[in-house]
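User: two proteins, same treatment. go.

Assistant:
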Amino acid sequence: MKPLADRLRPASIDDVVGQQHLLGKGKLLRRIIENNEIPNMIFYGPSGVGKTTVANIIAARTGKTLHRLNATTASVSDIKNIAATLDTFLAPDGVLLYLDEIQHFNKKQQQSLLEFMENGKITLIASTTENPYFYVYNAVLSRSIVFEFKPVPPSEIERALERAASALADEMHISDKLRIEPDAVRHLAESSNGDVRKALNSLEAVFLALAPGDEPVIDLDAAEQAAQKKAIRYDKDGDSHYDILSAFQKSIRGSDPDAAVHYLARLVSAGDIQSICRRLLVMASEDVGLAYPMAAVIVKACVDSALQLGFPEARIPLAEAAILLATAPKSNSAISAIGAAMRDIETIDTGDVPVHLKDSHYSGSAKLGHGTDYVNPHSMPNHYIKQQYLPDNIKDRVYYEFGNNKTELAAREYQKRLRGSANNGKDS
């Protein structure tokens, strides 16, 4: 018997779960499929997210003969054998070649596709789990449109699991007796890391393990065994979600790398990469801030790496970022400054922009006095001159207080020297 994922493979665009950025109403790939004018394409993304399914739907709609090859085992002779069927009763409307794992074809093998891609007799849909811009030959890339498939959200996987559970229950003639706990479906969806095929395989294992004669119940314990992963008390919309994120940030703010890694591990185990990345980016500026400004740059690089890698490898750059932030010097001077400024904006009349700072890049501005008394600091010694920048109503307000760390103390001394030199030079 075919695997469940193959037996239940969607036959229409609307039945595909996930990939709404490609297949939603009005999106480019959907419009291409509906217009029945299929170009050469490269589908890029992790396993089990619908690349093969969409290729099958395209083949069915176009009436082209579908041939599948896997680049790990195929050769140039396989491509020539497919080409031999062109213009015969075996492929009256042309051929759609679905080439899986194209990154395993070498340059010569990929070049063998070009002749048939150019004359339009073979439409190539290649799939790869690796970045095609690194692994696919430029001449093939230039003749193709690249579509990136993304991990399927758990809510969408739940929809696929519910549909599959209904089909399995019908196959086993237990539809009227079956009871499935919502926690079991949720766990299978969340533990699959965006891979629909993995979730369906786990569900099928649960059904196959149902004991004959017993009441057919699929509970969380069965789901944990099938997924080989224990459910974590973690609801992305509930208190547990925010409690763990709060503990994660407070551990980093408190310079405890061990606690930071512990709470990061909880978030990683729950597969919540988006919340991790967002919180790390916030902490780089909110908690480390100007004490070590490069932290924001390094954390951004780690986050980008994590999002491109996906789990399980994403845990490595995420841990690097968390440990860096936990062990870095801390300063909240930036958030304190913007917070104080925002409070003034919201609570008092701060006044108008000073006339000498107003835009003067238009005819008639001089008649209004806009910008006429402004002095460009770059024309002055040390690129500094004392002049008023805040509105009159708050001209003496201080929002930014230098933090007590090496970087900000050095910046404070630099500011003192600047202002001292300007005063000594009678520039104020």
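Protein 2:
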Amino acid sequence: MEYSNITLSVSDRVATIRLNRPDALNALSPELLHEFSHATAAMAADQNVKALVVRGEGRGFCAGADLLYFDQVFDDLSLLPDYVRDLNNALFALEDLPVPTIALVHGYALAGGLELMMACDMAVVAEDARIGDQHANFGLIPGGGSTQRLPRRVGMPRAMELLATGRWLSGAEAVEWGLALRAPPAELLESELESLLAGLRTKSRTGLALMKSLARASQDVPLRDGVALEGATFTHLFATSPHPREGIQAFKEKRQPEF
């Protein structure tokens, strides 16, 4: 399909979805969510892709849901469940994508933008970025998972502070809280991303997919069950993929494996 609210590109085994509504600070309209889900599904099927970057065009990453769209919702509340479903389907699809995902955040990541950032496996944020939930500032509550993902990521006290006060974090605070991986100065954001991607391009997509799936599962199962799942998956990988043999052979021959 043709995209007008996002752009999708693939280069050197890395896919990039760029939110492309800069005049609205990349607010998450229904049309954008539809295009985003389509692009995510396409990248899930592309076996050459080793990582996906999500970023925003213009002055910021994403300011959240398209509040102008909600003017229509007050006149027709039947629209609301569809929007919430589409938003959460897009975020779950990102979490389920069988490659590592990285949010590259500059400017603002607020409300739905924070939810989008948290749905990525990693986040590299500009030092001067502004990150927060802010639903409470407008008499709203989250609809895209902040009340569920935030406590899992930062613990209940910090999650409740961010949710209830609506305050914004700096990029450096987001790293301190465990919401982001790194917070370089804005002018070094691209080079920081590239240093991270360099460590992903040569990896086995099969291995990356399984590790991500197991790590995600760890949030929902007891430790012993998770370790048992990991062991079974480890055995299954040796039985079904040529990559373990290639990796071990490359180690013996002191060369880079070819995946």
